[in-house]
Amino acid sequence: MTELARREFLRRAIGVSLLGAGDGYVTHAIAQAKAPRTPGESGEVLGKYYFKKSYSPAPLPQWQTIHGQLPAPIYDSRPDWISMYWKSWEIAFHNFYEPAPGSGFVSQFIDAAFNANIFLWDSCFMTMFCNYAHPLVPGIGTLDNFYAKQHEDGEICREIVRHTGVDFPQWVNRENRPLFSRWGKEPSNPNVPYDVVYRGRPAPKQNPKLTLDALNHPILAWAELESYRITGDKARLGHVWEPLVHYYAALQEYLRQGNGLYMTDWASMDNSTRNVYLDRGGTGIDISAEMVLFARQMAEIARIQGKAADASRFASDADELSAIINQSMWDSRQSFYFDLTLDGKRAPVKTIAAFWPLLAKVASREQAEALATQLENPGTFKRLHRVPTLAADEPGYDPAGGYWRGAVWAPADTMVIRGLENYGHDALAREIALNHLNMAAQVFEKTGTIWENYAPDRVVQGKPAKANFAGWSAIGPIVYLLEYAIGLRANAPANSLAWNLTPGIRQGCDRFRFNDHVASLQAKPIVGTENAFQIEVDSDGEFKLELSSGRTRKTIDIKPGQQKVQV
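Structure (tokenized):
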């Protein structure tokens, strides 16, 4: 949760300003977060599964010297998209950090720009746009610092204090209790914790190091594979294998409920109306599907490394959990996925969490069609700015955003878009991506900056939302522009680059980076034709360029130097 959100929720709860004396709880929590502590002071060895143990100082990249080496998009019909792209990078450069002395961090990193802490799932999403500037800027290496702070039992805290390198104190199980949520079901009333009740399975023999608030959104493997797709760094997959294996096992140990599904609390979507139904050990559709995604991607990483037995084991886990999700969390009458309460009842709230099964390949073809239909329904998820985090026909829906009560978030949209592509809904995926890009650009034109989230029913930033946010919000201006507007999609393991051309406009990218290549690509429409282009490529290496324009497909073997071809 952002510092802004904490203050806003507490202000609503107690009815006073949090800028002065009424801000005691937040002030106390922030003071705890900033208090100097020695990482691993309990004697526990942190980061024992990761190969990197220390930081080797290096100059931090500076905007003034690096921006001329970044990929430079070309898209003549939308100069506002180009301007927003460059502004996103400029803001991001303010959020690059070196490890503070004594923090125990091992790599330079990009920060979420929320507050004094780094956040795990925010960092995972931020690597996705940083991949396109690899190795010029801190990107995937940001995740090194989470692996370096992994507990011996495999747990990784979702929030770590940037200056000291210690887990955010509120999420530390300093009482050595069985699993519990410190802030309960409502972060606006964070003094009502609850103990998790395990139903149908024994409680873990060893108490966790962290609270339930700290353990959610296990998408590290997704981020690693997104990086591999663009950078082709196979060695890194070997380095992160053991930390990921232990992280997966820890989540199985502590979060798996007796019904085979996985628990979460408010931390999944801070103030969502779904949260009350997750009380005391309810199971979330997002965390459950994310564990399927985690298992499927561990199987993929295992196959890449030639670990056949591990690949089989993780694939089996994924299939088993998928079956449980479809049996228990799919409502055939409403054609939608829902969370489950501790008592096994379906929570009556439609949220964007229900689309994680698309990304995890949990849904059947029929279920995917039903979810796609919801994304085309103006009464639920097809709003002016797509996709709201709460369905528009749900009580509590906020047309102004309301944080997780309707606001549009770039990471959530990215999950939906990638999930749709798994089932061949490429056109809908691109439509949603371009909608987000267009809406964000209009707000950018009004305000001159990038926002934490956006209103679903007006062309404005969300309320509340943090400004100058790059931050995961840079996914839209950078990734969506390169991949969905310009249409460039890298496949580094295959040493290929797919380019889906938009008819009628000059488009491309100078200094496009993938698989250790730097290539400048430009497509100029040929006058008097509908879909024909003059393609110009200047590359420092060899790769396959797979062009598509309308129904035309053509593959070109790119050689070092300059080439021209018509398609």
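DSSP finds 15 helices and 17 strands in the chain. Confidence is low (pLDDT under 50) at residues 1-39.
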